[in-house]
Structures are given as C-alpha cells and as structure tokens.
Amino acid sequence: MTLASAGATSQGGPSGPAPVPCGPEAMAGRAGRRLRIAVGIASAGRASILRETVEYLSGLSDQAERLIVCVPVSDDAAGLTDRPGLDIIVGSRGLTSQRNRIIQAAAADTDILIFLDDDFIPAATFLSRMASVFATNPEVVIATGEVLADGILDGGLDMSEALQVLETAGETAELVTDVYNAYGCNMAVRLSPVIEHAVSFDEQLPLYGWLEDVDFSRSLARYGRSVHVEGARGVHLGVRSGRQPGRRLGYSQVANPAYLIRKGTMSKGRAITQIGRNILANVSGALSNDRLIDRWGRLNGNLLALSDLLIGRASPSRILEFATPLPREMPSPSIATKRR
Questions:
Q1: What percent of the chain is modeled with pLDDT above 90?
Q2: Domains in the chain, please, with CATH?
Q3: What is the pTM of this model?
Q4: Glycosyltransferase 2-like domain: from which residue to which, for each copy (predicted)?
Q5: Of 12, 51, 69, 129, which has the fewest CB atoms closer than 10 Å, so is most exposed?
C-alpha cells in the first residue's frame, strides 16, 4: 500500500490535475504493447462499503496494474491502509477534485483509467472487456459498461444480491455503441487525450458533482468516441449512506444543467428536459408521500434554484451555503442522463 497526500483542495481551488511528464510523445512510446489499466475509486464517509468493494476487486482473476483510492481523510479508508498493492491518496474533498487527483496519480504509467464508484461491483471479466474495446478501437476515448441492476432506483442492493445478479446474467458478447455520456459509476477513460488536451473534472461542481459524468464525457468526446459496452457488466449497489441530502441535490438538479449549458457541455434541449423531468418527479413523489426519497427537500432545492436563475445568481457552488440537514436519504451523485 502506498499512502500519499494530495494536499487539501477547496471547492474553488484548482480545476484540474497538476502537470505530469506524460505528454503525447510519452504516450506514443507506449504503442505496440499491452495497455496498462488502473482502477480509480473516489470515496468519502463510507469506509465499510469501500473496504468491501476493494476486497471484492482484489479477489478477481482480472486485475488492473494499479488500484488507486482517493479519500478526504485517512479514516475513510479504515481497514485498507496495510493492504499491499493499493495506493491511497488523502487530502482532497469533493468527487471532481478527488477524481482529478486520481488522474494525476495515474497519468505517468497508465493507459486506461477506469473510474468506479465505491459501490459498483463489476463482473469478473469487466476489466478485460474494457481493455479489449480500447485496444481494438483506438478512436474510443471514454466508455461505460452495462449496468445490470441499479440499486439507486429501488432502495439499494447489498453485495450478495449483486453477486446473484451477476451470476444469473452470465456472459454475453461485446457490443459497442455510441452514447452521449458515460455513467459515472463506471467510466473507462483513455488517458492520452485527457493529458494532451488538459481535460479534467470541473471542480466548480462541488461535493458529489451532480452531472460531472456528463460534463467530463462531453469534454473528452471532442477528441474521439464515447461508447457504451454491452457485455462489460456490473451492478451498482446504490448505497444511500454518505450521499447528498435532498435540498442540495434539488438545487443541483436545476443549477448544474444550467451551468453546463453556459459551458457548452450539455445541449439546451437536453438540459431543459432533464430539469423538467426532475421537477415533475419531485412534485409527484412529494404528493404521493415517497418514503424512500426526500422529495420535499429536493423540490425546495428545485424552486430555490429556479428563483436564483431568474435573478442571475444560480451557481452549482451555492449548495455549499446550505446547512447540512439530518440525513433522510442520500441519492447517487452521478447517474447517467438516460437513467435520471
């Protein structure tokens, strides 16, 4: 295990990984050999979940050359600090910041970096399937796998349920199709264009970085294909602990798409549809007394963001001003647009 400090990073701090000696020339030197794969996991406040996932990954026959975990404080990686072959970075806070630190750590010796949520359970052949797609399709710059079950949609799954889903589903042939954006719970990235074009996760999307997967995918897709790989399978547990409270998420559901419109990484039509669908779901859930999701909190955040838009003060970072309420439910920070 390697323990490193990335340095404390505020939400308004640097928006990308620090420079590394890994430009196009260095990448070109890697041609003609097997791609080096790293898995990166950003986690916070969920030490037991992280430990369970790392133990599962360590037991697979498919192994990445590196497994990199980034946590805000060392306690978030409790039980893992003595594990051999694991690199732990401590010091960043916020999903986008943590993922940028993982890019920085992997850049010098990695070809394909696979970001997994700390509660995403890949099938035994997930890594080799992704490696095959990138090796045989040099134009692919970002890929997302097939999510067989997503616990965020129905209250969450546990590890035994995930393993049962994977066993029942079995294996299928790979099918590669173009997709608008990768799903943040499993996102494989070719690092050469990331480094050459200084693509990074936008740290102006704070905390759980709602829609950071869309923003990063569309930024990177300017340099190649964004694809979905059917056959590279996994299960997203959708564990609710440690997730974003209703009011903050509700605000992000409106403010973040509006920000991405201005930035140019989300089309106006797609963003407006996204905002409308979220508001309608929250209204419906509030009226039906949804007990799994804090719909009233989300709706409150929606309305506050709409009000801020009208007076020109809406900003993703405004959620940092909200007091943290007692947790009622904590939804997933990064669900692909088609699943929202």
A1: 74
A2: 2-236 (3.90.550.10), 246-324 (no CATH)
A3: 0.85
A4: 88-145
A5: 12
